[in-house]
Task: inverse folding
């Protein structure tokens, strides 16, 4: 059986964070759980740096039936399974079965747990979870959504294209009625570009200002949606080529950066009409210019050889002697 023990975070300000414990359990092998000491620690011992935990607090073992069992070994501050104390102080308890997802607490907080050394140890057991397939499809979907949000809208070329060619659309671009925008489960507002976002290792995304109170338990983080515990100090040393080869991001990248732009039939008709109008206007302008130039270049009309009108007037006859 594969056993994984992670911190259970109820209050990020008053939780004891410890390294994740993973063990492959063998039948009848007993694991001692107690307070940390400077002595050499064997593989069958799990220790915690808390003074409310006894040196020999409890023990775990895998029974012949393949089930995990726990027993309090006369601890002074008690052992709790799902908030139920197993025995009184300094008394050994009966064996109790531990299931996947059970919460086990060692001791109780002393003086409110202000000092980390006086805090109770709260842990959650995860049994045989490594055999369950991880939701890779959801993780890749969230990764691609965030990647397109940060790369497409921050690209200067896409910004210029959207303003200079408003009718050009990508073939894979969904209509406005089909667009799905992720929301922050804390404030229920949309996760939008140019916002400070936090993406947990379980692929759930939040606004950083909304999730910040839960980061007080750093480096430990417990997702408020799926309750999955993650170590934020875990190594992130992964080469770019490895990510591209493993998840096929080169193909996705080529589709985003080299996808040909297409124009819808309606946009084509509108563009054809606008082009025809521009051509007509240009043709009429050229006609006006040619007529104006021809009128300016024609020779002036010849001067008339007839005498002026005043010289051709016949005086009225006079009737003298009448």
Result:
């Amino acid at each position: 059986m594969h056993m994984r023990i992670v911190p259970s975070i109820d209050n990020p300000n008053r939780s004891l964070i410890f390294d994740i414990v993973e063990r492959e359990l063998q039948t009848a092998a007993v694991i001692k759980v107690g307070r940390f000491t400077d002595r050499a620690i064997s593989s069958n011992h799990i220790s915690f740096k808390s003074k409310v935990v006894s040196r020999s607090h409890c023990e775990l073992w895998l029974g012949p039936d393949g089930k995990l069992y726990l027993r309090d070994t006369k601890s002074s501050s008690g052992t709790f399974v799902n908030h139920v104390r197993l025995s009184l102080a300094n008394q050994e308890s009966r064996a109790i079965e531990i299931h996947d997802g059970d919460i086990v607490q060692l001791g109780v907080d002393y003086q409110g747990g202000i000092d980390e050394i006086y805090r109770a140890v709260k842990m959650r057991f995860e049994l045989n979870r490594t055999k369950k397939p991880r939701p890779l499809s959801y993780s890749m979907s969230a990764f691609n959504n965030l990647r397109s949000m940060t790369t497409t809208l921050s690209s200067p070329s896409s910004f210029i294209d959207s303003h200079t060619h408003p009718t050009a659309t990508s073939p894979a671009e969904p209509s406005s009625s089909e667009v799905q925008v992720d929301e922050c489960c804390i404030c229920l507002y949309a996760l939008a570009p140019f916002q400070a976002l936090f993406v947990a290792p379980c692929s759930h995304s939040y606004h950083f200002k909304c999730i910040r109170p839960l980061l007080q338990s750093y480096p430990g983080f417990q997702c408020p949606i799926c309750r999955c515990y993650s170590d934020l100090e875990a190594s992130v040393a992964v080469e770019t080529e490895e990510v591209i080869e493993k998840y096929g991001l080169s193909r996705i990248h080529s589709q985003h950066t080299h996808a040909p732009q297409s124009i819808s039939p309606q946009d084509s008709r509108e563009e054809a009409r606008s082009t025809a109008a521009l051509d007509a206007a240009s043709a009429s302008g050229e006609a006006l210019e040619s007529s104006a130039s021809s009128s300016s270049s024609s020779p002036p009309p010849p001067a008339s050889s007839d005498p002026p009108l005043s010289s051709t007037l016949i005086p009225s006859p006079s009737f003298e002697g009448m």
Q: What stands out?
A: Residues 286 and 297 are 16 Å apart (CA to CA). The longest helix spans residues 265-297.
